[in-house]
Design a protein that fits this description.
Helix 2 packs antiparallel against helix 3. The protein has one domain: 2-Layer Sandwich (TolA/TonB C-terminal domain). The protein is of the alpha+beta class. The chain has three helices and six strands. About 10% of the residues have low confidence. The strands form two sheets. The chain has a four-stranded antiparallel sheet, with helices on one face.
Length: about 110
């Protein structure tokens, strides 16, 4: 199985008045990538050839906690259970506290069995 991750947030990520370096965001995502794989692997048990891309939009609040997390429209993964699992998983993550307030992030994941 191949999972590719790419940060699309600007350097540093900005919104809501705050900022956080994209490398800090990438470190946290990388530390939790097994959780994302678990969501995808569960989906593969139902659809062994499932592949596609989804993008998670989430907000990192001033204390580093994720205050909201949702999947962008246009996911090509086309599996509501996996999408929900990914969004719920991201909401549990803790990031370094952004400077100046909250930060909005869009983070794509690409999935392919293998």
């Amino acid at each position: 199985m191949l999972i590719t991750t790419i940060v699309t947030a600007a350097t540093p990520a900005r919104a809501g008045g705050g900022s956080l370096d994209k490398d800090e965001i990438r470190k946290v995502v990388k530390a939790h990538i097994q959780e994302i794989r678990a969501c995808y692997n569960e989906g593969l048990t139902r659809k062994p050839t499932m592949a596609g891309k989804l993008t998670v939009d989430f907000e990192i609040a001033g204390g580093g906690e994720v205050s909201s997390s949702e999947i962008q429209q246009g996911s090509t993964l086309a599996d509501a259970k996996v999408e929900s699992c990914v969004a719920t998983t991201v909401q549990t993550w803790k990031f370094p506290a952004p400077s100046g307030g909250s930060v909005q992030v869009s983070y794509p994941f690409e999935f392919a069995p293998g």
